[in-house]
Amino acid sequence: MRSVPADAATERDGGRLQGLAEEHAARIRAVHGPNVVNTERSVPLRSRVIAQLRDPLIMVLLGAVALTTAIGDYPDSVVIALVITVNTTVGVVQEVRADHAVSALSAMSAPTARVRRAGVDKEVPSSDVVPGDVIVLGEGDIVPADARLVDAAALLIDESMLTGESVPVDKSPRSERPDEAVLRAGTIVVRGRGTARVTATGADSALGRIAQLLDTRPQPTPLQHRLAALGRVLAVVTLALCLVVFVLGLLRGTAPATMAVTAISLAVAAVPESLPAVVTLALALGARRMAARHALVRRLSAVETLGSVTVLATDKTGTLTEGRMVVEHVWTPVVEVSFTGSGYEPVGEARVDGRAAERGELGPVRELLIAAALCNDAELRPPAPPSHQSGDVRWTAIGDPTEAALLTAAAKAGCPAHHELRTCYPRTDEEPFDSTRKRMTTVHATPDGQVLICLKGAPEAVLDAAVLTEPQLLLENARRQAAALAAQGFRVLAVASTEREEAPTRMANAESGLRLLGLAALADPPKTAAIGTLADCRAAGITPVLITGDHPATAKAIAGRVGLLTGTDPGEVVTGRALAAGEVPDLTAVRVFARTDPKQKLDIVQAWRARGHVTAMTGDGVNDGPALRQADIGVAMGQRGTEVARQAADLVLTDDELSTVVSAVEEGRRVYDNIRRFLLYGLAGGTAEILVMLLGPLLGLPLPLRAGQILWINLLTHGLTGVAMGAEPAAKGTMKRAPRPPDQHVLGDGLWQRLLFLAVVVTVGSLAAGLAARATGAPWQSVLFLSLLMAQLGVVLGLRDRVLTRENLFLPVAVAASAGLAAAALYLPVLRSLLGTAALGWQEVAPALAGGALGFLAARMSSHVRKQPVSEAE
User: Fold this and answer.
1) For residues 358 and 392, is the Cβ–Cβ distance under 8 A?
2) Would you place residue 601 in the very low, low, confident or very high pLDDT band (cuts 50, 70, 90)?
3) Which residues of 36-58 are buried (b: 16+ CB within 10 A; e: fewer)?
4) Distance of CA 606 to CAs 432, 537, 626, 665, 837, Å?
5) Which residues pair with 284 in a beta bridge?
6) pLDDT tens for each residue of 532-560
7) Phi-psi region of 160 (alpha: psi -120 to 50; beta: other; left: phi over 0)
8) Are the C-beta atoms of 398 and 121 separated by less than 8 Å?
9) Which residue in 248, 656, 674, 857 has a CA-CA distance of 20 to 30 Å to 73?
């Protein structure tokens, strides 16, 4: 293990570690390298080329080269060798591009860590953490490196990913057991907070040593598995048909060697061997396009799954709402105060009965807000100086938005600054907030030697006779006030405190005998785009469901304001308590859930999946992790989400906007549509080539096409044009149709019928042109060659959703280039001798151009299929 540098910053300011200076951290990083547990070795170019050449179809072509050379058919040998070279080059280039795209995505979705540098807490990529760094940990964080605890409060760590132990472990720097002061990279903070100094990073960490044993190569997606199985079936069928072509040729007296090469070439041309590379590249580039639209894909399989999403389970705060909490109202048993201002900027006015509050009136409010500021782990960060043009121009929060809003309100009410309170009332103990208890308690030393206990939490967790010493009448009044505020859409917190002479021996004893200070009502207004986003979801056949830990009245108010509840939706809000009591027989009949715990979120997702739905689940907290994992698509918030949520998710939203999920779904549908479009085009062309070779001899065309001509057609149709199809824009109405069934065959939904229709049209048109040329004494084989090629290029353009769109100009350019190379095969002497073609006059070219037009019209006709009706998931 690498030791911590001797000059690592251990200086303290008031007992607080200051951390390394940025320059010092950079020097250490230069020595120790990035904090990355496994760096995938780049695949050498030689290995990529060999892998391409080991493809079964390419190996068959290599055998064809040897055979044609042995019999002296050098023109075909050269053509086949050229096809092998071009296919291998295209395959390697596509593979490299896909790898680069995936690597870029991995870099963008890399985890982050909170470090203290020169006394300032900041968020940096985990790869920038170095030995000697001071890391700051809170609930939901993933420990970025091996470290030794310096300070901790109720710190509970999940080490199951390293030890297999399912029970979280308590950690404390004062423990007599050395292991309890050590943190390991990759473990998760389940509860509490802590400060630690890094001792080992990267491959030297415990996680790094384990990672060396793992196979980190990306695995094929489900779609790639299905396509591979389809490819095997097609290969068997194609080889059988090619054997028939071979036998028919022998029966007509053609030389066995010639027919063998022809049959091999036909087999290679008929199977779209570039499909795996096209699919991989389409998925990777689709993920890149999603990243440009603020959705980072962490797993390629998510790209294809997104197109099938039928249910979107969303949380409330920061997703349907702004996520920038503001304390708008404070109720105390003595006075009620409203606050003006917006965001986290501590500028605003306290008002009583519509007028500015007098200083004497704010005493009870200040007492409440001081307690809330002490029972608080957030910090407010002022705007960056004007000299930092790239800095944020607004006040921002580090930590929980709700706690940051309480700090802002305390500043507006004239309370001492947060750092002054922290110095004057140092925290000595605490019981952190968790989603089960729904409250947080801290213990502080007072300047006069007393002990101050502060508690805040959900009203139902605080307004309890077991916690407070208040009269029942006051408790009932406070509950009514809390319910009334929640019904208006506020998030309500209750705050209590007390002073004692001695610190409690157990934290459980601290949460009783307290005095109620009052209620804080926080507003988190709905996002203006939320209404349109949910409408877009419904139009796309996606059912939105709200799952929140907030008060039922708050959840219902927000759901109504953003249009999540419509006239056809069940209007009832189901609480976690009702779920626990088993009072809801069908979870899929509910649209709004409130006061849910992590297990119940998981149950809701599982209920939808059990009904055959494909679920997308949004979340940001550590308690959302299980549901994000269980959902078909886990969606984490990149800005305010915890590291646990981000690492559990398949998709990370860098802008925390729900509309980005809809954009990602559209991109997923686009990728899947383009893969099906390529399959339709490639298989229809291959089928047409087989039919031409089967039917041609029966119609008097002895050997319709030579081996080199078949491979040249394959090269021009499956090369650049095939790759270009993967970048086609989304079709009109993509988000107005129902999601595709997740178990739908890749050739389902009418694709088989369209494929056969196009294959028949291309075959008939090509053979008609060849037979007409033969009847007039023209070089019919060259006419047939050109007609078959042009018909397939016509199909490419006809399959576009918008023929004249300016998006994806690469496709028409690729088609034009292929047409140019087709002409070169007829008029360039070198290619003519290699391919066995003849120069054609305009009279012979016209039927071929007509074949291209016929292919285009047939593709346009096949594209006008009946759209699936959109209906919301039942």
Assistant:
1) no
2) confident
3) bbeeeeeeeeeebeeebeeeebb
4) 30, 21, 11, 21, 62
5) none
6) 999 999 999 999 999 988 778 888 888 88
7) alpha
8) yes
9) 248
Q: What tokens appear for 738 in the block? A: 């129902």
- Taking Cα atoms as reference points, which of 211, 92, 93, 246 lies closest to residue 703? 246
Q: Report which of 319, 323, 354 is spatially closest to residue 337, judged by C-alpha positions.
A: 354
Count of CB atoms within 10 A of residue 578's CB? 18
Residues serving a catalytic function are 315
Angle at 414 between CA 412 and CA 416, to 5 degrees: 115
CA 543/CA 201 separation, integer angstroms? 44
Q: Helices in 271-347 by DSSP H: which ranges?
A: 275-292, 301-306
**Which range, of 99-113, 120-134, 764-778, averages the lowest pLDDT?**
99-113
Helix (H, G, I), strand (E, B) or coil at 295: strand
| C-alpha dihedral, 366 to 370 to 376 to 382, nearest 10° | 70
Three-class SS state of 584 = coil
pLDDT single digits (tens) 486-517: 888 788 999 999 999 999 988 888 999 999 99
What beta strand segments (E) does 159-232 contain? 169-171, 182-183, 188-200
E strand intervals along 408-542 = 427-431, 439-445, 451-457, 491-500, 515-523
Place of tokens 């095969």: 825
SS3 content of the chain, % helix, strand, coil (to 5): 50, 15, 35
Give the DSSP H/E element, type plus range, for residue 667: helix 658-698
- In whole angstroms, how far apart are CA 700 and each of 253, 295, 695, 788? 14, 58, 9, 17
Identity at 249, one-letter amino acid code: G
DSSP type of residue 808: T
User: In 3-state terms, what secondary structure has residue 565?
Assistant: coil
Alpha-carbon gap, residue 367 to 373, rounded angstroms: 10
Pseudo-torsion of CA 862, 868, 869, 872, nearest 10°?
Answer: -160
What gap in Å lies between CA 777 and CA 292, rounded to an integer?
57
- The answer to whether the CB of 548 falls within 8 A of the CB of 593 is yes
CA gap 790, 853 in Å, rounded:
8
799: enclosing H helix or E strand: none
**Tokens coding 479:** 């509950």
| pLDDT value of position 118 | 86
> At residue 223, what are phi and psi to the nearest 5 degrees?
-65, -40
Neighbours of 621 (CB within 10 A): 22
Give me 382's structure tokens.
Answer: 């002022």
What is the end-to-end Cα distance of the chain in Å, rounded?
A: 57
Judged against a pLDDT cut of 90, whether residue 657 lies above it is answered with no
User: Which pair of tokens denotes residue 579?
Assistant: 């779920």
Q: Which amino acid is at 176?
A: E
**Measured torsion, CA atoms of residues 598, 603, 608, 611, in degrees rounded to the nearest 10:** 160
